[in-house]
Amino acid sequence: MNHSDSERIAGFLEIQPHPNPLLSKEREFKPTKDIHKADLVIFNTCGVRQMAEDRVYGQIHNLRKKHPETKIVLTGCLANRKDVQRRLKNKVDLFCEIKDFPEIVGTDLVSVPREQRQALPLQENYLKIIPKYSAKHTAYVPIMTGCNNFCSYCVVPYARGREVSRPAEEIIGEIKLLVKRGYKKIILLGQNVNSYNDKKINFSKLLKKINSIPGNFWIWFISNHPKDFSLELIETMTKCRKVCECVHLPIQAGDDKILENMNRKYTAREYLAKIEKIKKAFAKNKPGKLYSITSDIIVGFPGETKKQFLESAKIMEKVGYSMVYFGQFSPRPGTMAAKMKDNVKKSEKVRREKYLNEILKKTSFSNNKKYENKIIEVLVNEEKNGNYFGHTRTMKNVKITSAKKNITGKIVRVKVTKANVWNLEGVLKK
Questions:
Q1: Which terminus, N or C, of the chain has the lesser number of Cβ atoms within 10 Å?
Q2: CATH number of the domain at 375-428, please?
């Protein structure tokens, strides 16, 4: 989501000169690869983990020390936190929540009449900014922002506010334009993407509308919440031809007591029941098609015992994930979990993450072996040292050898010749 936000910020800044005195009255902004040559630096921050937060403090401190004249704006997850504002008050020129960007930094670039802008919620103003897409073949399209779940460890509801969904017509219009421009993969984004509802249609119906847009392109979406992953959505995604066969469904923990303390609103059994429904739906609606299931797991949540931790390991073995993104718990100011005693040592969190990663290596390799000698579709992202690199509809990374023609940005057929733990290798088929 931060990547998509940055594309909208770039689109906002680079269109025309801005009347805001903080920015510029004289010229439009242009990007620079050298931060030391910038007149304006915007830090689009992530507050999910302490490590990311600490990097922001260090970078802003060093930039302000070396270039006191540079204008610095801080946006993203950290922008509205009072402790962050106090710490950086003499180093940052403007703190701005991402949803308020067009209102605080300037409103002239929002693509609706001024009189209508005043009546729109701030989140809708922000989502109407035309982004500067950074990739040539894959486009991120936010369909909603904010979150109503208040998981005890998560700062998102405080940083981004409650859920707001974009009008379906606006989303469809953006995607039609992207497909016309040749984009091959559309990633629908939201902090809780499957709770999308614009008061007219829900997420399943939106997927059907996008799937019906003419053109050869893929659809993927992140991030989902298990409680909102309905049977209707399972049926829809496994029946829509353009929707990728990859489901990202975060479990976060395998023990019911820890899930309750996380305020996740489901049990391990309920989660596994949804996974089973997903697998059966793929078998019924896309027989013979390979698919992948990925997840997120937090290790070392306050009070997590070794026995409770091993329940997460059991979930991994039962599901057979293709990928899991692990996070060592770090308390986020303002959340309920920040008030809990962080009693799992750092060394133990590291050990637990390594333990789960060993399980992941086995399940990932086992899943990848299923691709050997099969012909699959690959979206080619780049060429490097004579080889091409891309990914499958199941988000598997692929190295393509012996390709003699320019295939970057195309969806091609590849025969898989070798499966590795984290990627596949193959040759181009005619």
A1: C
A2: 2.40.50.140
